[in-house]
């Protein structure tokens, strides 16, 4: 058993001062056994905890670290910029540089506004959608997560095309009434909602690659259908690309599927490991944002030079030839070999991937496209799988609903080690050998 004594001790101390001992709930390890590991160092594909244990890391800070930990290009630009001060609250060259890098290389973004998190990006972009259309309601999908803003912490109500109910205490009913929650991958439900509320709907928001409740891969035709219906009804199509943006290609899921959304939100990779989010759209929409237009939105640390520089350094590497092909190949090999093992051992298990995102579903369904398709037994299997993964020196997010990320820093030998470790973990979870 790995030694977790110092992490355990640090967690006891943290719990005295922080709710649940953490600053973001899933970190508390409530979906797996034991208490959280306190990490102290990361370099490339590896992280080390306070007890000195080493892990190959596929959590990658929940997605931002597409180059791995402590990347030399990112660190070098960040330390140069930081040596001259950390924040001015004035324009700085790095925000223009990052914006230009994105606009020049993303077909669907004319202008971009930087904020400090994915939640802030989505929340602000929803305001833009409402401000531009003059309509109050939004459609979202069960199984997509868009951050913790009031109007997005809503789950489906009791029938198709009914209003939702909130998923957190503290959200007034009047906010929830503006959000319609539908099942993914269901064209009829969208048509029904548009028929009922069409004139009031500002936007349809979706993770085009839903990756927060397992990996619920949607068919391209469903996304094309949303584009078509939005065009027919003057509803804005909003792709939340906080995870998929710069991950499955520089143009994210929009580029991957070749579908143009009206509004996009970004986070994670865009900040090179610093707290950055952004929203972007065509100029006509972005010109509605203050100070050019009437949709107010501001931020003390928005466009912070250190964070912008980290984003510039990271995205420049992402633009290099073959960058995404290499990530995809490593991820394909990882998932292919684990799947072959599971099939060979008759383990009812499926591992899905797209680009460098992967997810183990603990069910033998070969398609999981809606939240309801997820096997109810999966979390229990995952717990056993997770215990053994840590023993094998492999770190992934501590919940069966979280996806894993392969980074440019993962070597072929990291992938070999992970294939081997995951085979052992699967054998443990399913009592093989
Ligand atoms: C698709 C999506 N949107 C929004 C968010 C919220 O981003 P943040 O955690 O930076 O507030 C997340 C976070 O995981 C996300 O995956």
Summarize this structure briefly.
With 433 residues, the chain is an alpha/beta fold. It folds into 2 domains: 5-70 and 321-429, Aspartate Aminotransferase, domain 1 (Alpha-Beta Complex), CATH 3.90.1150.10; 72-318, Aspartate Aminotransferase, domain 2 (3-Layer(aba) Sandwich), CATH 3.40.640.10.
Which short descriptors sum up this protein?
Aspartate Aminotransferase, domain 1, binds pyridoxal-5'-phosphate, 37% helix, four-stranded mixed beta sheet, 13 helices, Aspartate Aminotransferase, domain 2
Describe this structure in words.
This protein starts with a helix and ends with a helix. Helix 6 runs parallel beside helix 7 and helix 11 (323-344) runs parallel beside helix 13 (412-429). A 7-stranded mixed β-sheet has the order 4-12-11-10-9-5-8, sandwiched between helices. The chain has a 4-stranded mixed β-sheet with strand order 1-2-3-15. 37% of the residues lie in helices and 15% in strands. Strand 9 (201-206), helix 7 and strand 10 form a beta-alpha-beta unit. It folds into 2 domains: 5-70 and 321-429, Alpha-Beta Complex (Aspartate Aminotransferase, domain 1); 72-318, Aspartate Aminotransferase, domain 2 (3-Layer(aba) Sandwich), CATH 3.40.640. It has 13 helices and 16 strands. The chain is globular. The protein has 433 residues and is an alpha/beta fold. Residues 117-119, 122, 145-147, 207, 212, 240, 242-243, 267, 277 line the site of pyridoxal-5'-phosphate.
